[in-house]
Amino acid sequence: MMDVFSALGHGFSVAATPLNILFCFIGAICGTLIGVLPGLGPVATISLLLPATYALDPVGAIIMLAGIYYGAQYGGSTTAILVNIPGESTSVVTAIDGYKMALQGRAGEALAIAAIGSFIAGCFGTVVIALLGPPLAMMAQKFASPDYFSLMVLGLVSAVVLANGSAFRAIAMIFLGLLLGMVGMDINTGEARMTFGLIELSDGINFVALVMGFFGVAEVISNLENVSQRIVNHTKINSIWPSFKVLRGAWGAVTRGTVLGTLFGVLPGGGATIASFSSYALEKRVSKTPERFGNGAIEGVAGPESANNAAAQTSFVPLLTMGIPTSATMALLVGALTLHGIAPGPTIISRQPDLFWGLIASMFIGNAMLVIINLPMIGLWVRLLNVPYRILYLVIAVICAIGVYSVNNSSFDVYMTIGFTALGYILRKLDAEPAPLLMGFVLGPMVEENFRRSLITSHGDPMVFLQRPISLALLLLSAALLISIVMPSISKRRQEVFQE
Amino acid sequence: MKTIVQRGNTDFYSGLLLSAIAIVALFYIRTLAIGTVLDMGPGYFPLGLALILLGMGLVLIVKGLTTAGMPAGVVHLRPLFFILLSFAAFGLLIERAGLAIAILAQVAIAHFASRESTWRVSLITGVILAAMSSIVFVWLLKLPVNVLP
Fold first, then answer.
1. Distance of CA A401 to the CA centre of its chain
2. Residue B121 near chain A (CB below 8 Å)
3. What is the pTM of this model?
4. N or C: which end of chain A has fewer CB within 10 A?
5. Which residues in chain B have Cβ-Cβ distances shorter than 8 Å to A425?
6. Positive or negative, the Cα torsion across A109, A114, A119, A125?
7. Which chain B positions have a beta carbon within 8 Å of A415's beta carbon?
8. What are the distances in angstroms from CA A364 to CA A16, A120, A256?
9. Do the chains contact at B73 and A172, CB–CB below 8 Å?
């Protein structure tokens, strides 16, 4: 226990340097900004800012990128409550009761509870990372290559759970992603694979070009299809200081949402969106007066907003302890770590204590900053919604182009983005989600390496994956997860959750 | 507004797309050494993946032909074409004509992607973007490109 405190102290000494506080602040501001603006998610933003972090040291870079992710959870709730537009998918349920509260003149109350709940949940989730991280990483260090292979299978299956729509197509997207991940030099022989004879592809497909095409530019094109609506803010914000009575009413929901979100974040196939939906359902069930839900129940804001923040925080656990991303955003952070020369895996905590504890400490600082950024500056964020999309899309397009170019200073990467945008746009039209593809792409080389290594050590016996207890348990868990998706009753519920 | 309304459903088209990609991949994997389970060559794992992808693609095609599924979304050609063209212009011009020209060209082409854009707004946005990017990326972040030709 003392170790954790001294380590955290060390973390604060890393995170509290003026430069790292600045990075944390930039991340939090960017996160809030994209959280407020609909149509630009954390995945696209993180990939946009990825090239800009090359010049930074890895700790500062990760602090900033993480700040974008959890900052977006705060920002998303603001617009959900005030104008009924959830900036992020994680705030969709917040809009149900939050906007009703705003119409009743209780916007300030709802915003304050959302921010306070988010803060409490964010801090709790961070404590969980600090406590859970080191022992989990110790455990993961005992993993051999078959165990790793099975762990990645579990990570990939979890991407199917997260995907909206047909599970079969989501699995196909994973295989497509894995195949794209194979492009480039073979690690064992150095032979070029599927490079179409292009030297530019020998290092593999540029990660930023792929992400920007799929998540950034394809999104812009989809947004341009519809006529943009002018957003008018009808609601007035009353005092942002909630009364004692409101706090007491929300307290239970915040606590339940925090615990639920913490669990969902750590679990494969969990994540912030599902956590917020589940929390709303839970609050409705435990409430003595469920009829208030949908008509401005404070619990309907407090629970989901706490849950999504707790989950956003604890979804870092699988990434930092085992190197396994559980969502598209986390997959991006794997890419970011790799670009900075840090191999994601169980050795991060022992080899990069500055990174791990600095990041955790920065999360406390970041969450505190976010409350300050969000509450008094709400008016400013809402005004941002009035920036017309006909300006915004030009800005996004230009920044995407410069961002992709600056990774390797190569025009080839810009052309590659064009290809991935077209592919991403078509897949979108075919109702195939890009997130599983990204997970497959990021994990592809690691999956292959561990698969090959496993079979070499087992002298070609594929039973090795079932003989090691850890590997067997992980594979069984993946199978159970997969069956639960395919089972009609559960998949129907999953659709309901997404359609709500 | 130009649109292609596609007949058929998402399963059929995604199956077609995935199979096509798998076949292209298989064509390029053909030259790689496959090896055996004990001594896997560079082609072993990609071959497995491509074959699975091809199988899944074919299943989707059959499913799409035999069952009535969701219709595919409408492809809007106008934003797709102009946004992609604007990126091509940026890529072509950045090393030949400098960052400022590349951005202005990109904005000028991307302008046509939206039905709501006006020349005045796009022009101002383009000029500000060119100026800001030159300051931030070339001057502050030291991106090794010229601002002007």
1. 23
2. yes
3. 0.81
4. N
5. 75, 80
6. positive
7. 87-88, 91
8. 11, 10, 20
9. no
Integer-rounded Cα radius of gyration of chain B: 23
Check: CB of residue B23 under 8 Å from CB of residue B30.
Answer: no
Question: Chain B 10-39, CB below 8 Å of chain A: which residues?
Answer: 10-11, 13-14, 17-18, 21-22, 25, 28-29, 32-33, 36-38
Measured between alpha carbons, how far is residue A38 from residues A133, A291, A384, B57, B92 in Å? 33, 30, 11, 33, 31
For the residues B44-65, what does the mean pLDDT come to? 90
Asked whether the predicted pLDDT for residue A39 surpasses 70, the reply is no
| pLDDT digits 0-9 by tens, A207-255 | 888 888 888 888 888 888 876 665 555 556 666 666 777 777 788 888 8
3-state secondary structure of A306: helix
CB B113 within 8 A of CB A393: yes
Contact B59 A52 (CB under 8 A): no
Asked whether the beta carbons of residue A168 and residue B40 sit closer than 8 angstroms, the reply is no
Comparing CB atoms, the residue among B42, B79, B110 nearest residue A193 is: B42
User: CA of B5: which chain A residue's CA is closest?
Assistant: A429
Comparing CA positions, the residue from A122, A119, A22, A78 lying closest to residue A374 is: A78
DSSP class of A227: P
Local structure of B35: helix, strand or coil: strand
Reduce the secondary structure of B43-93 to three states and give it as a string.
CHHHHHHHHHHHHHHHHHHHHHHHCCCCECCCEEHHHHHHHHHHHHHHHHH
Query: Among candidates A321, A301, A324, which has minimal Cα distance to A149?
Result: A324
For residue A185, the cross-strand partners are A192
Question: B62 at the A interface (CB within 8 A)?
Answer: no
Using the Cβ of B141 and the Cβ atoms of chain A, whether some distance falls under 8 Å is answered with: yes
pLDDT above 70 for A368: yes
Please give the ipTM for the structure prediction: 0.89
Q: Which residue has the tokens 């990774």?
A: A407
Token output for A328:
């598209």
> From the list B11, B84, B121, which residue is nearest A421 (CB)?
B84
Distance in angstroms (rounded) separating the CA atoms of residues A313 and A123? 8
Is A193 strand, coil or helix?
strand
Q: Cα B138–B139–B143 angle (5° rounding)? A: 30
Residues in B touching A389 (Cβ below 8 Å): 114, 116
